[in-house]
Amino acid sequence: MSNFKKLSLFSIFKSKNKNNKDRSKITTQKLNDQLINHANANNFENNSKINDKKTFTQVQNLDKLQYNNINKKNFFNKLKVQLSKTRKIINFGINYIFSKKKIDHSVFETIEELLLTSDVGIHTTTKIMQYLTKEVYCNNIQEINPIYLMLKKKMYKFLKTVEIPLQINTYNPFIILVVGVNGAGKTTTIGKLAMKYKEEGKSVMLAAGDTFRAGAIEQLCLWGKDTKVPVVTQHFGADPASVIFDTIQSAQSKKIDIVIADTSGRLQNKEPLMNELKKIVKVTKKLNATGPHEIMLVIDGSSGQNVIRQIKLFNKFLKITGIVITKLDGTAKGGILFAIADMFSIPIRYIGVGEKKHDLYNFSSTEFVDALFLNNHIK
Ligand SMILES: Nc1nc2c(ncn2[C@@H]2O[C@H](COP(=O)(O)OP(=O)(O)OP(=O)(O)O)[C@@H](O)[C@H]2O)c(=O)[nH]1
Predict the structure, then answer these.
(1) ipTM, 2 decimals?
(2) I need a surface site. Which of 41, 71, 125, 202 has the fewest CB within 10 A?
(3) pLDDT surpasses 60 at 44
C-alpha cells in the first residue's frame, strides 16, 4: 500500500471519528433542548400542548437516556481510575513510543516490554508482536499513530470474543455455582451479584456452600442481610452438596429466579476437593437436570500468570462456563484479561473493582480497552 493510501485511510478514520463526535454533540444538544422545554412546561396536567401521553412518554424516555448517559460516563471514569495501575504501565510505554518521530526497532521492543509487564503473558504478547511487525513491514508504515491504533484494535479484538453477558432468564431457578481458589473473592462476588440481580428486579437465594472456612457462612449471611436476600445455611463442616440441594429445593418451592451457591476455596491441583465440586454438580442435577446453568470461576486479577493454570485445571474438572476477574482495582495489571481471552474461549462475565456491593461491572471489551489506553496521543 502506498504511503498516500495509508495516509488517506487514517484520515478517513479520523474524520469518521470527528463526524461521530459532531453527531453525538447534535443529539445531546437536541436532547437538552427537549428536556429544557419539558422543564419549562412546569405543570404537565394543565399544559394542553404537552398534556398528551405520547409526549410525556417521549420526554420520560429522554430523561432515562440522559440519566443512562451520565451513569455510563461516571462508570467509565470510575473504571479508568480503578484500572490506573495497568494504564500507567501501558501509557508510560506509549508516551515513549510517541516521543519517537518514526517507527524503529526500539518501538517494537517497548511495546513488547509494556505488554509483558502488564501481565499479557509471553504467548499472547508473541501473537500481538507478530501481527504488528507483519502489518508495519508489509504495509510500509512509518508513522507512529497507525501502530498505536493497530495495537489498540488488536487488543480489543481479543477481548471482544469473550464478551458474552450471562443470560439469566433461561431457567427457573437459574443456578449459578461459584468456584475458585482460596481468597479469590467468591463470597464477595456473590454478595455483589445478589445486589445486582435484585436491583434488576429478580428474586435471589444464596447457598452457604463454603462450610469449610471459619467465618464463611457468617460472611455470606452478612451479604444476605445487606442485600435483603435469603441465605440457606447448615452447620460449619456440613456437606456442601447437601446445603446446595436444600437451597435449590427451597428456591423451587418459593419460585425464586436465581440461586447462587458459594463453595469453599480450593487449590486446583487437590483432586479430592475438585471431586467434591463434581459431586455438587451431580446433586444439583437430581433437582434440575439442566443445572447448574453457570459454573462461574472467580479469579483474582492480581495473581498474574498463575491464573492461567487455575483456569486450565478448573476447566479440566468442571466445564467452566463463565469467569469473573476480581481485584482489578488493586495491584492487578489488567493485561491478564488478554491472555485469558486469547487462551480460553470462556466468556468473561464480570469484573470486580473493589470490595463494595456496587463494585462489580458487566464486562465490556471496549470500555476495558478504552480505560487502559489514553486516546490523547492521537492528534
Ligand atoms: N480490592 C478488592 N478486594 C476484593 C475484591 N473482591 C474481593 N475482595 C477482597 O478479597 C478478600 C477475599 O474475598 P472473599 O470473598 O472472602 O474470597 P473467597 O474466595 O470467598 O475466599 P475463601 O472462602 O477463603 O476461598 C476479601 O478481603 C474481599 O473484601 C475486589 O474486586 N477488589
Answers:
(1) 0.99
(2) 71
(3) no
